[in-house]
Amino acid sequence: MTRRSSLLSCASRPAMPLLLTDSGVRLAYADRGAGAPLVLVHGWSLSSAAFDGLAARLPGRRLIMPDLRGHGGSDPAAFALEDLGRDLALLLDRLGLEGAVLAGWSLGAQAALAALPAVRRRLAGLVLISGTPRFTIGDGWPHGQPAQALEVLAHRVRRDPARAAARFFDGMFAPGELDGPAAPRARALRAAIPAPSAAAALAGLAALAAADLRAGLAAIDLPALVIHGTADPICPPGAGRALAAGIPGARLALLPGAGHAPHLTRPDEVAALLRAFPAAAGVVAA
């Protein structure tokens, strides 16, 4: 793939099929390639296009990449985290996936955890990228953001959803992380993905503020990989370490100097980790 085709991939994506939920919400998703299925779930205010650069580095895999409700090509519906989990379960069931790896990034990691009880039988592994079981500080959890930070972001969304989403996007990266080749990719992605509706953006923030998934981690009984940047300004690296420690037998892959979106800034490293999973185990500093 040439540099130009990489930068234009977000704008030249083929039409996405739609999945209709029982409540009438239409969910867009990409389904491309052949091989062992890998489901990639994006984060707040973005869409499945966030994975296009990573997808190009994963030949030989069937890649299923949904747009969460309220995002991308899906209907602009409000939601709770439980809705996102049910949507993922419905998608995997409708596609009849078996032996899939479910990989979620940021809010998508929480959606994957929410879906896990319903989709466990369809999975060969779980990958959590820049994820956290609890987004905000409190109740013995120092690895998050102050609740006030979400309140400030919600205020910005109410005033101007597009500007708030763009500002959040720019804040995902570590200092200097966009000084190299990742900068054009990041700019192209930000320009190509429309901001979610204010209702959907606020619903996502409310889901992040309310979720505390720590209690369910010990029950996860399939191979798990946690990928986290050591300079993540959104979900501190301590969240990734605690997440991996809470899941029995989970592998932790720390990416030195990476921010909140390592699949954008370090796609080759993330792709290599995904190709090796779930065979490898232990703690890795990539």
UniProtKB/TrEMBL annotation:
Signal peptide: none annotated. SUPFAM superfamilies: alpha/beta-Hydrolases. GO terms for cellular component: membrane. Keywords: Hydrolase. InterPro entries: AB_hydrolase_1, AB_hydrolase_fold, AB_hydrolase_sf. One of its GO terms (molecular function) is hydrolase activity. It comes from the Bacteria. It holds the Pfam family Abhydrolase_1. This is Alpha/beta hydrolase fold-1. The lineage of its organism: Bacteria, Pseudomonadati, Myxococcota, Myxococcia, Myxococcales.
